[in-house]
Design brief:
- With 232 residues, the protein is α+β, with helices and mostly antiparallel strands.
- The chain folds into 2 domains: 77 residues, Beta Barrel (OB fold (Dihydrolipoamide Acetyltransferase, E2P)); 147 residues, Trna Endonuclease, Chain: A, domain 1, CATH 3.40.1350.
- Helices cover 17% and strands 44% of the residues.
- It is built from 3 helices and 16 strands.
- Strands 1, 8, 9, 10, 11, 12, 13, 14, 15 and 16 form a 10-stranded mixed beta sheet that branches. A 6-stranded antiparallel beta sheet has the order 4-3-2-5-6-7, with no helix packed on it.
- 41% of the residues are buried.
- The model has no long low-confidence stretch (mean pLDDT 96).
């Protein structure tokens, strides 16, 4: 199992998300705090005021906002909102040989600069080509369908084109969608970002691979669950 244990979590009630990376919340003791929100997306359908949320707390005295928003409780279950978690799970999976098509015993490097961007993972193996992986967090799910992106993402489109260029140069490139919400299938959110959806279909035809996986969430850990079908 590929899993990350949560630190002790504090339950609170969401008041509002604001300034993109901040959220105000009321702790169960009545105290109102501001928490850091590590999520660049719109958090569509998973940031409604009044919902229970779960926060971790840092002991770093230099942090202005000690609390970090990790999950929100929705009618369909827990939803992960911290977009750094999927990258950490992907690193563990790469090192453990979790995904069957990824190279075994590869040297795994995170945040590698390529062109005008940084890609999430580079896997170098003595056998076979270098493998590049771009990890995308998905928290928008409708009727069991995981959708990405939840806002227009020009940066995301640029990443797709750069992955296609790496394939053309002889490497492998993979888009890994990790859904931090219960889902059974992944589709690009064409109504939200038609350019990203069209570009995804284009680069897949050019040899970029796509893989979608669910993340199982509890109040004690986050773990990789089951593979999701992909419908382009």
């Amino acid at each position: 199992m590929i899993a990350i244990a949560w630190p002790p979590l504090t339950r609170a009630t969401l008041i509002q998300r604001h300034k993109r990376f901040l959220a105000d919340a009321r702790l169960d003791n009545g105290e109102v705090i501001t928490a850091h929100t590590a999520n660049t997306g719109s958090m569509l359908t998973c940031s409604q005021p009044g919902r229970p949320i779960y926060l971790s707390r840092s002991n770093n005295p230099k942090r202005r906002y000690p609390y970090s928003w990790e999950m929100i409780e929705m009618p369909d279950g827990l939803v992960g909102v911290n977009t750094t978690l999927p990258n950490r799970l992907a690193v563990l999976a790469a090192r453990a040989g979790f995904f069957p098509t990824w190279p075994l015993n590869a040297e795994v490097t995170s945040e590698v600069s390529i062109g005008h961007s940084r890609l999430d993972l580079r896997l170098k193996s003595p056998q076979g080509p270098t493998v590049w992986v771009e990890v995308k967090n998905c928290s928008l799910v409708e009727a069991g369908v995981a959708l990405f992106p939840d806002a227009v993402s020009q940066r995301g489109t640029r990443h797709l084109l750069e992955l296609a260029q790496l394939v053309e140069a002889g490497d492998r490139a993979i888009i890994l969608i990790l859904a931090q919400r219960k889902a059974r299938v992944f589709r690009p959110a064409a109504r939200i970002d038609p350019v990203w959806a069209k570009t995804l279909a284009q680069v897949v035809r050019q040899g970029v691979e796509i893989l979608a996986w669910g993340v199982d969430l509890t109040l004690t850990e986050a773990s990789l669950g089951e593979r999701l079908a992909v419908e382009l």
